[in-house]
Amino acid sequence: MMLYRKEFTGLSNLLVVVFCMCLLFGCQNDEHDQGNTSEDQITKNIQNKIMPLGASRVQGFYPWFESYRYYLWKDLIDGGWDFDYIGTEMETGSYPNYKGLSFDTDHQGKMSWTSKQIFKELESILSETGYPDIVLFSSPGGNDILDGLPYENVIENINGIIDIFQNHNPDIVILIEQLAPGKRSFMTQELTAIFEQAVLDVDKIAQEQTKESSQVIAVNMFDGFSDGYLYDNIHYNEEGAEFIAQRYYEVLKTVLE
């Protein structure tokens, strides 16, 4: 009888030890799994918020003239980047899915908007969309120039727009377009001179507005752009939209996280 009790006690103690070891290793495995899950989740949550900003060249008017947004969206997918277009406007045209994904229709392009209108409305826009990580500032001041508005006001508004973005997000990256021209038959000598001046001024603005933590990068859409890229006097056809998208993408892939 005593022998049985000793054996039972020894067996009980052994079971307790085994049970404790299982709990210990089980907890360690759970912690390891939770660590991996947490890391994976963090990786999946990394997303670059991109705001396409401008007027009709950003908005597009499918199926007549095109925006670069769809073609850039495909380039970014091909590059494997994690991103999200943001803006208060939505694409009204119909674009096909790509690699099983639906086109991201958000943007901040409005037909005929001037730099002053963007500047005045930007705070309200950002309160609705949140703050982007990257801005694609297209044809800055283009409508102002076409409307014959004072050029010095255009430069002031562009700087003011950049200031608003940087005040809200000190780490923001802003890609600012050096304007693609209109058709040669449309570009008068006076228009051409202003567009060429704008190309120089955008480069200057980019240099002056770049901060330690916030890049402002001029993107040259002027050189290499031709009449064959235009649907009408100033808006892109499909080839033109792809040209603009490619120029943006070449810079974007150097700054995306």
Salient structural properties:
53% helix; Rossmann fold; alpha/beta; 8 helices; 257 residues; 2 domains
Please give a structural write-up:
The protein has 257 residues and is of the alpha/beta class. The chain has 2 domains: 1-45; 47-255, SGNH hydrolase (Rossmann fold, 3-Layer(aba) Sandwich). Helices cover 53% and strands 12% of the residues. It has helices at 2-45, 56-59, 69-78, 115-129, 142-146, 151-168, 189-209, 238-255; strands at residues 48-54, 83-85, 89-90, 106-109, 134-137, 173-178, 216-220. The longest helix is centred in the first third of the chain and has 44 residues, at 2-45. The protein is globular, with a radius of gyration of 28 Å. Residues 1-45 have low confidence and may be disordered.
